[in-house]
Design brief:
The protein has one domain: Rossmann fold (3-Layer(aba) Sandwich). It is built from ten helices and eight strands. The protein has an eight-stranded mixed β-sheet with strand order 1-2-4-3-5-6-7-8, sandwiched between helices. Strand 7, helix 8 and strand 8 form a beta-alpha-beta unit.
């Protein structure tokens, strides 16, 4: 695993394959290892780069507060360290937020954008949304990371016991302080007002049983000039691990279409 020695600490990332850069950004409480099905599938034709964000996996937590802009800056530095000026960028959940931030702060580095079960805004608006954030904070503070993983696992992988067990074991390895700092950085963050500025080809992937409705994703897709929505059936939030073949097919077709120069703006089109 390559290591970038940055001024504010080490940044670890996976690298595999050769060809144009494909950057994969993981979700909250996850790491680069969750992209194993995509590393295998895409490394034949791409240089696949999968960072461990600060406070995740092998990358230690940052000194001071975490921020989405800080994560995006780290990712841009990793791309440069790997020798690439730009990349096709893919982000899941928290990683999708980081990808959005990268696209608005470093548009020249984002050749295309794929957002998976994420949003350009994580601002709680309803009572239910505020309670969900509070519940997660309390469970982690009082009961720890393993218990939070045990609560989440059945929602993510209701039909796969092996993935549930693996998820709980990996989730338990998170450092509580880094996880909470990342969650606090995410809550209240938004780049929703900058969506019209994202002009690169964009694919938004939604699981049909994700936490947030498909309609919410279509609403922000309509604000991005070259975006389309793909829906994967019988899938949940961690669709890249739960349904890797279906997800890889969607991403592969998008990347092929982008290289062929086809327009990606088909708002309302579902896969």
């Amino acid at each position: 695993m390559p290591v970038l020695k940055a001024d504010h600490g080490e940044l670890h990332y996976e690298r595999a394959g050769s060809g144009p850069a494909l950057l994969l950004i993981h979700g909250l409480g996850s790491s680069s290892r969750d992209w194993a099905p995509q590393l295998e599938a895409f490394s034949a034709n791409h240089t696949v780069i999968a960072p461990d964000l600060r406070g995740h996996g092998r990358t230690p937590g940052a000194r001071g507060r975490f921020s989405l802009r800080g994560f995006a800056e780290d990712v841009a530095a990793i791309m440069a360290d790997a020798g690439f000026a730009d990349a096709d960028v893919v982000g899941l959940s928290l990683g999708g937020a980081v990808a959005f931030q990268l696209a608005v702060d470093y548009p020249e580095r984002v050749r295309s954008l794929t957002i998976v079960n994420s949003s350009p805004s994580f601002v709680p608006r309803t009572r239910r949304e505020h309670l969900m954030v509070l519940q997660r904070l309390l469970v982690i503070r009082l009961l720890g990371m393993r218990r939070m993983g045990q609560i989440l696992a059945p929602r993510l992988f209701p039909d796969n016991a092996a993935l549930r067990d693996l998820f709980v074991e990996q989730y338990a390895q998170n450092r509580k302080s880094d996880y909470l700092a990342t969650l606090k950085a995410l809550v209240g963050w938004s780049v929703a007002e900058r969506l019209p500025d994202i002009t690169c080809p964009t694919l938004v992937v939604s699981a049909d049983q994700d936490y947030t409705p498909v309609a919410d994703k279509q609403a922000y897709v309509d604000q991005i000039p070259q975006a389309r929505l793909a829906v994967i059936a019988n899938a949940h939030h961690a669709v890249t691990a739960e349904r890797p073949d279906a997800f890889n097919c969607e991403l592969g077709e998008f990347l092929k279409g982008k290289r062929a120069g086809r327009s990606t703006k088909t708002a309302g089109e579902n896969a």
